[in-house]
Amino acid sequence: MTGLKVDIKKRSNHVILASQSNLKFRETLPIKWGAANALERGPVVASNTNPKARNAIGGHSGSYTVYRALSIASGKFPALHKPDLHNTQSPVPLGPYSQWSEPLKMVTVDPWGLDPQLHFKDLFTQGYDIRPTISVTQAHLQIPEINEAIEKGRLKIDGKIIKENHDVRVTKVAIDPVWYLPGIAQRLNVDEGDLRRILFQETGGMYPEFITRPDLKVWLPPIGSSTAYIFGDAQDLAKPEVELTCRVHDECNGSDVFGSDICTCRPYLMYGIEDAARTAQRGGVGIIVYYRKEGRALGEVTKFLVYNARKRQEGGDTAATYFHRTECVAGTEDARFQEFMPDCLHFFGIKKIHNLHSMSNMKYDAIVKSGIEVVNRISIPDDLIPQDAQVEMEAKKAAGYFTKEPKKTKEALKKVKGRNIDE
Ligand SMILES: [Zn+2]
């Protein structure tokens, strides 16, 4: 395979336009999405060290692609750097699970992007620059709410899941998005050609291959990744007979990190972590999957505008108008597309969730529709809801989010109010 040799001193300044015809080279490996094993499926090659070997649209590292470009442009990063993957492999064996080879079961995750240096060893030897899109490591968590749960006797120290110093032991998994366009189109029930055209237009023409290279079916979108935190044995996730507690959580920086009290995101997340740890302690397994979909995937700028509009509207911030205000500002209530969310669960081989921590019907429906059985749905305990977040909570319950309580009437919803903008 001498054709893979590239000048390692400097990347050529020559630009290959994606619109140039016939860009299939003999180094370009085919991808057979959903095939039974790694070699038959073929690796996703999106690195730039040898453009002739690329078989995907876009670049690695999601939104951080742009920072890599800046580093290269400023001379701080060698353009032809290939990662040394020695000792980087997962400390826990994961997969392959049956879902990995079910056609279109996962269309936003590449399961073989975990430890490709092991799955595609021969191709690495031949010089292919294949990059991991999933990585796994182990860690200890130190969380104030967990300290409180231990002090109040809700969690116990067992020396295994929770250490003497209150550290919680976890396995954490980072998952970069790898999208299979025909599968995305099918799940959205749209034509692949229309999808590619609109992706091209809405990214400002960022990826001409959407239009010019219909043979390229895989795209690495410039969006945030997902992260899973696993409590207990990660391999137990794939065993339906082992009790599994799961929270699928969409990012809310204001609440999750800074403790902003307008929503229930951090309290619900922390309750999920507490319950996941407790499940692991009684012989089960817990998982929190954290999706970078800030502000219902409308972004934080939009989210703050909506907060202002909610608080300034006539009658104040009420549960009755909660969803409407988002739609007025953003054009839609929600852009998260939960139909892709279960892909991360299938990566872990999950078939049955005993305790699902989510009140969202969109999440529940997506999980069940994807073939995962859900036994119990767990809503956030009332005493964990901040006062200003009652507006969100009551609006969601009224809109049909899961709860064991009766729905409030429209009049009653008007009475659930948040703080004014200047309070
Ligand atoms: Zn929130």
Question: Which structural traits does this protein have?
Answer:
three-stranded mixed beta sheet, seven-stranded mixed beta sheet, alpha/beta, 17 helices, binds zinc ion, 423 residues
Query: Poorly predicted ranges (pLDDT <50, ≥5 residues)?
Result: none
Strand line-up of the largest beta sheet: 2-3-6-8-7-9-10
- Secondary-structure element sequence? HEHHHEHEEHHHEEEHHEHHHHEHEHH
The number of helical runs is 17
Structural class: alpha/beta
**Main sheet overview:** 7 strands, mixed
- The tally of beta strands, per DSSP, is 10
How confident is the prediction overall: mean pLDDT? 92
The dominant shape is globular
List bound small molecules. zinc ion
Q: Which quaternary structure do these chains form?
A: single chain
* Helicity range: 25-40%
- Mind telling me the C-alpha Rg? 23 Å
Strand content: 5-15%
Cα(first) to Cα(last) distance is 68 Å
SSE layout:
Blueprint lengths: L37 H4 L15 E2 L6 H9 L42 H4 L1 H5 L8 E8 L2 H8 L16 E8 L3 E2 H8 L3 H11 L6 H4 L5 E3 L5 E6 L12 E7 L2 H4 L8 H17 L3 E7 L2 H4 L2 H13 L9 H9 L11 H6 L4 E6 L3 H9 L3 E6 L11 H9 L11 H6 L8
Parallel strand pairs: 1-5, 7-8, 7-9, 9-10
Antiparallel strand pairs: 2-3, 3-6, 4-5, 6-8
